[in-house]
UniProtKB/TrEMBL annotation, chains A, B:
Organism per entry: Alkalihalophilus marmarensis DSM 21297
GO molecular function: RNA binding; tRNA pseudouridine(38-40) synthase activity
Protein name: tRNA pseudouridine synthase A
Positions of the catalytic residues: D53 (nucleophile)
Superkingdom per UniProt: Bacteria
SUPFAM superfamilies per record: Pseudouridine synthase
Span of domain Pseudouridine synthase I TruA alpha/beta: 8-104, 144-246
Functional summary from the UniProt entry: Formation of pseudouridine at positions 38, 39 and 40 in the anticodon stem and loop of transfer RNAs.
Reactions that this protein is recorded to catalyse: uridine(38/39/40) in tRNA = pseudouridine(38/39/40) in tRNA
Enzyme Commission designation: 5.4.99.12
Lineage: Bacteria, Bacillati, Bacillota, Bacilli, Bacillales
Length: 247, 247
C-alpha cells in the first residue's frame, strides 16, 4: 500500500462540517465516496489534520489515505477532482512515508478569519466572511491580540464542551490586517483548541467596539474561565489556511 | 400612491433569474413577497430596469413600485430587508416622480464580468466568476475590444432567440482590468441586447487564447451573423453593476 497526502480546499457553506455524520453532507464523506469510485468500489478511509465545523472553510486542509495504486502523484488531484463536487478541490498530492499521519504529525496550523467591517452586509460575501457593522478600534484590538502571543493555558478560549485536558497551546502570531473594507485575522500556533480561533476573534471584536478592554484578554488568560472571554464569532468567516509538518 | 425607486443587490447563484416564472425561485417573486408582507397582505408589483438570467448577479439593479405608505425613504431598505432572504439586499430607496419607470427611463447601464484566469478553479469563487485556465493575451483582447466601442448593429452579439428588432446599440467603454489572478471586464453602453455582454466576453476570451484574431470582432460587427462571434460566456461571471437615468 502507498500512503498519499493531499492538500485540499473546500467551501464549507453547504457542508455539515468535515467529519462524517449520519444523513449529513460532509467533506469526509464526499472524499471517501470519490476515493471509492477511483478504487472501483473498494472502501478507502481518509484522515484529516483535524475537523472543521459546519460553515467553516479550508484553503489548505491536509488529508492522508492508503491506496494500492501507484500512479504519478500529479494524477491524484485529477482523478479525485473528476469525482468530487465543485465545492471541494484537491490542490496537490504527494507520496508520503508509510507512517505519515495527517493529524498526529502536525507541528502547527494557520487559521484566518475574515470580517467585513461595513455598515451594510454584502450578498456576495455573506458565506465567506462575518459581518460587523460597528466601527472597530484596530489599535486596541492589536494591543489585546499581543497578550495572546506565546504559551498559555487557553481554557478561557475553548468551547466548554470539550474533552481535551491539556489546554496549553503556543500562539506564534495573531495579526490583524486591513484590506479595504475587510479585516483579516491571521493566527498561527502549534495547535488550536475547539472553537479557539472563533472565540479569540469574537473577543477581539468586543475589544474593537468597546465592549471590553484590551487588558480583559490578559485577565481571561489568567482566570481560565470561558465566561471571561467573548462570544464565539460565526463560522463563515473562518478558514483553515495551512497545516505544517516537520518534513 | 407614492412611487419608490430602489437600488438592490443580489447574488444570482440560487435564483432562476430575475423574472417571475411558475414554481421557480426568482428575485422578483422574493421582492414582491417582501412587499406583500410590508403591505399587510396587499399585492404590490415590481418593475426592474431589466431581467437578469439564472446565475447572473446584480450590484446595482434598479426597481420601482407604488405604495400608499409615505415613510422616510431610509426606512424602506430596513423594512424590506427584514422580509427578504439574505441573498437579496435593498441598498437604498428614494421617492421618485410618479411617472418614473425603472425600465423605460434607463439611459445607460454598466455590466461587469469577472474571470478567474488561473490553472486551477477556486472553490470560493466558483459562483462569482468564470474560470479560464488558458493563458490570455490581454493586449490582443484590448485591441479586439476597441472595435466594439461606438454605435454598431450588435446582431452578431445577441442571442438568436430574441424578439428585439433594432439591434443598434452604443458602447461607451469595454475595459479589461487585471486584478491579481482575475480579469474584470467593464462594459458601459446605452443599452444591451439579450446575452450581449456574455457573447462579447466569450468572443474576447477566444481572442485572448488565440482561437480567433482581434479583427474577427470587426468582421462579426459587419456580417451581423451570430456564428461569426464567439461562444456565450457562463452566467456566474456577470454582474449588472449600475443603471443610469437622466434625473
Amino acid at each position: 500500500m502507498n500512503r498519499i497526502a493531499c492538500i485540499i480546499s473546500y467551501d464549507g457553506t453547504n457542508f455539515s462540517g468535515y467529519q462524517v455524520q449520519p444523513n449529513k453532507r460532509t467533506v469526509q464523506l464526499e472524499i471517501e465516496q470519490a476515493l471509492k469510485r477511483v478504487h472501483k468500489g473498494q472502501e478507502v478511509s481518509v484522515t484529516a489534520s483535524g475537523r472543521t465545523d459546519a460553515g467553516v472553510h479550508a484553503k489548505g486542509q491536509v488529508i492522508h489515505f492508503d491506496s494500492p495504486f501507484r500512479i504519478p502523484a500529479a494524477q491524484w488531484p485529477k482523478a479525485l477532482n473528476a469525482c468530487l463536487p465543485d465545492d471541494i478541490r484537491v490542490l496537490s498530492a504527494r507520496y508520503a512515508e508509510k507512517d505519515f499521519h495527517a493529524r498526529y504529525h502536525t507541528t502547527g496550523k494557520e487559521y484566518r478569519y475574515r470580517v467585513l467591517n461595513a455598515e451594510d452586509p454584502d450578498v456576495f460575501r455573506r458565506h465567506h466572511s462575518a459581518h460587523v457593522s460597528y466601527a472597530l478600534d484596530i489599535d486596541k484590538m492589536r494591543q489585546a491580540a499581543a497578550y495572546l502571543i506565546g504559551t498559555h493555558d487557553f481554557s478561557a478560549f475553548c468551547a466548554a464542551n470539550t474533552s481535551v485536558i491539556d489546554k496549553v497551546r503556543t500562539l506564534y502570531a495573531v495579526d490583524i490586517n486591513v484590506h479595504e473594507d475587510e479585516l483579516h485575522f491571521i493566527l498561527r500556533g502549534n495547535g488550536f483548541l475547539y472553537n479557539m480561533v472563533r472565540i479569540i476573534v469574537g473577543t477581539l471584536l468586543e475589544v474593537g467596539y468597546g465592549k471590553r478592554t484590551a487588558q480583559s484578554v490578559d485577565t481571561a488568560l489568567r482566570t481560565c474561565k470561558r465566561d471571561d472571554a467573548g462570544k464565539t464569532a460565526p463560522p463563515q468567516g473562518l478558514y483553515l489556511w495551512s497545516v505544517q509538518y516537520n518534513d
